[in-house]
Write a structure and sequence with these properties.
Layout: H1 9-18, E1 24-27, E2 37-41, E3 46-51, H2 55-71, E4 80-84, E5 89-92, E6 98-99, H3 107-126, H4 135-157, H5 163-181, E7 185-188, E8 197-200, E9 205-208, E10 215-218, H6 224-229, H7 235-245, H8 251-275, H9 278-295
Antiparallel strand pairs: 1-2, 2-3, 3-5, 4-5, 6-8, 7-10, 8-9
Helix pairs in contact: 3-7, 4-5, 4-8, 5-8, 8-9
Length: 296
């Protein structure tokens, strides 16, 4: 038996109630402080076990699994096998494929992956979920907070920005709340990026994982990572994604998406400067530069 010492004893005890004779435990957490995920295997089966960072994350993820069952096929999303609110533990089925982030793909396959990602997200967004009474208020509060954050970050980073970049961040503060007010709500994935896409090369299919940030919000919020990290230099992948998504973004969505992305970028820059993390500084500057050039 090979057991990773980082698996808490109470969690192992819970796991063995549903997966007897555990023979192997492997820590597969992301390299960040609040990520705690393990692959557990017996001689006949395998599962993934996750400890949610917060009670809210746990509740969101459990609901996200329920949503996935309703809108995605069995090979497109893992299934929830068991959950324990006291431990904030979630056990899910394995999904075929490899995480797309970091994969070496041909141009043809990469285009296909992004088109399939667009299709998955459209089905995720289109399947209706009851909208909580407070959802619209929560979204507007989030937009206001992001506008305020952009203002605060701009005060601390202004000397590191060009005139055009400062003007873009100022737009975030002025325009995001009003633009967001008229946009419809969807059930978001919440962390839609290649680190949560699985590519099954053998079958040519794609899957989706990690639902702890799922909630009602604006559809374009699920596109912010792509807008900042991929689309500025890969318009071909943007076209493929939107082809899969099956619709062009509305005028209001096209206006708010780069502003939401700029808010994230200036936050990266501010955090990087404050904590002296060059990687975050470079990421923030790069995204802001790309957004200014795209606005041209």
């Amino acid at each position: 038996m090979t057991l990773d010492a980082s698996l808490p004893a109470d969690l192992l005890q819970w796991v063995t109630r549903f997966l007897p004779a555990v023979a192997n435990v492997t820590d597969v957490s992301w390299p960040r402080g609040d990520s705690r995920v393990w692959r557990v295997a017996s001689s006949v089966s395998e599962a993934y076990v996750k400890l949610s960072p917060t009670t809210e994350d746990y509740a969101r993820e459990v609901y996200g699994y329920q949503h996935a069952v309703r809108c995605l096929a069995a090979r497109e999303a893992p299934r929830l096998l068991s959950a324990d609110p006291g431990l904030r533990a979630i056990m899910s089925s394995p999904l075929p494929g490899l995480v797309v982030k970091g994969l070496s793909l041909t141009a043809e396959v990469e285009t296909r992956v992004h088109e399939l990602a667009g299709r998955l997200l459209r089905r995720w967004h289109d399947h209706p979920e009851p909208v909580p009474a407070h959802a619209r208020d929560d979204v507007m509060a989030s937009m206001a907070e992001q506008a305020d954050e952009a203002t605060a970050c701009l005060e601390r980073t202004a000397e590191h920005l060009t005139d055009a970049q400062r003007a873009l961040v100022q737009q975030v503060s002025r325009e995001i709340p009003d633009l967001a007010e008229g946009l419809p709500l969807v059930f978001q994935h919440g962390d839609y990026s290649p680190r949560n896409w699985l590519w099954d090369a053998e079958r040519g299919t794609q899957g989706l994982i990690d639902f702890e940030k799922s909630a009602h919000g604006l559809a374009v919020e699920d596109l912010v990572w792509l807008c900042g990290a991929v689309w500025p230099t890969r318009p071909d992948l943007k076209r493929a994604f939107l082809k899969g998504y099956g619709r062009e973004l509305s005028d209001a969505e096209q206006r708010v998406l780069p502003l939401l992305t700029a808010r994230l970028a200036v936050s990266y820059l501010n955090t990087g400067l404050t904590k002296q993390e060059p990687m975050l500084v470079e990421r923030g500057r790069t995204v802001l530069g790309d957004l200014v050039r795209a606005a041209g």
